[in-house]
Amino acid sequence: MSLNRKATAVGLVFAILLGLALPVTAADDAALDKAFEVLKTYDWGNDRSPLEALDRAIAASHGDAAAQKALEARLVAVLKSDAPNAAKDVTCRQLSLVGSAGSVETLADLLGDEKLAHIARYALERMQCPEALAALREALSKTSGRVKVGVINSLGVRRDAEATAALTALLDASDEAIVSAAAGALGKIGSSDTAKTLKAFQADAPDSLALVAADACLANAEQLLADGKKLEAMMMYRGLSKSEIKHIKVAATRGLLAAAGKK
Predict the structure, then answer these.
(1) pLDDT value at residue 51
(2) Terminal-residue alpha carbon distance, the chain
(3) Is residue 209 domain-resident?
(4) Is residue 170 part of a domain?
(5) Which listed site, 14, 93, 150, 173, has its alpha carbon 20 to 30 Å from 179?
(6) If phi over 0 gives left and psi between -120 and 50 gives alpha, with beta otherwise, what is residue 61?
(7) Residue 212 lies in a domain
(8) What are 88-138's pLDDT values in tens digits?
(9) If we measure between CA atoms, which residue out of 181, 147, 157, 177 comes closest to residue 167?
(10) How many CB atoms lie within 10 A of CB 11?
(11) Is residue 218 part of a domain?
(12) What is the CATH number of the domain that holds 182?
């Protein structure tokens, strides 16, 4: 075959493939549009198959900032609408994957809604932008009860050092569930500052919070060790190794050996 014929053949194949690709793209766009229409009225128990186009679009947007921004805008619009809570639950889960600073305010507004606070927090906890963490910190003073406990837990999961002062203040709360959550979050943050705070908290903790305090101190020590702060970790482990709580004593002894480089 001559060079010209080869070039012509390749061109024809390319044109055919391009022609085949266009209808698929159009079909995907149509399916995504339908998914958003279905999402606006989606409720528990409804057929979820039309929403699969949204799942695929979210997955395909990985690494494509423009595509993620476009999807985020449409998802935020659903949250701002009067869509059912089930639809907003699905939306928050998707925003946990493509959300950015642009959706933080809308998600933060849901933290005041008892029925949606947990899923809005789920999204904010997984978003890596600093605005999401700031929103969770601000929510500490605006929430109460189980919602507040959830916010505290999220700050612990994210190891938000900037929340240390606010979490420390909550150790004096009258609600033991909040105190327990705050202690646990401080332990997960696991810094030198939280170590001092938790040791002081453990020294004065009532019997009802003795295990909570010990567990928080142990978590802090383990995080210090993981961060390479062996001396500080050993100091915490040494104190915990004298605990009357069996699993704390055993874990602290193992921690001491690990910090010393012994098996």
Answers:
(1) 96
(2) 71
(3) yes
(4) yes
(5) 93
(6) alpha
(7) yes
(8) 999 999 999 999 999 999 999 999 999 999 999 999 999 999 999 999 999
(9) 181
(10) 10
(11) yes
(12) 1.25.10
Domain encompassing residue 176: 160-263
Give how many domains the chain has, as a whole number.
1
Task: Indicate whether 22 pLDDT > 70.
Answer: no
Query: Token digits for 7?
Result: 């070039």
Kindly tell me the burial class for residue 110, based on how many C-beta atoms sit within 10 Å of its own C-beta (0-12, 13-18, 19 or more).
buried
| 14 pLDDT higher than 90 | no
Q: What's phi and psi for 112, nearest 5 deg?
A: -90, 0
